[in-house]
Request: fold
Amino acid sequence: MTSQTTIPVGIYWKPGVWDLARSAYVADLDTAADSPGSFVGWLAQALELHARRSPQQRAELAAAGEKHPALVSVTRKSFNKKHDLPASTMEAVEDALVSDRQELGRMLARSAFAQEAVIASAEDARRRLGRDLPPPPQKLSNRPPRRRPAR
Reply:
């Protein structure tokens, strides 16, 4: 594994989106061969994939996800959490945010961008899994075991 420069990035998480991200990460451990083995790696991958989409594609996904149940929480408060993400990932996110603003007039914060990226990636994970995502783990372990391919 190559060493990358990381930067601390604070993301303001809605509790349902936080749970959705962790559920999708766990599902991808067993269904996506190229899925990273750490949650922060999964998050970086989701952000990079979203940043590679066109501004129009991001706007369409945002509109489709506006009413996602993960966006609503009546019992838990939103919170800020720091993640050490690759600097290259955050450069791609910043470029995408500027493109969205210049091309569509969409002004998003990094946290809103992350939320849209997670919802889109979680839907992809659900499709790969072929059923609802598993419940989120209470606590994510560092480098959890993966399902091994059949021999």
About this structure: The chain has a mean pLDDT of 91. Residues 14 and 78 are 5 Å apart (CA to CA). Strands lie at 6-13, 79-86. The longest strand covers residues 6-13.
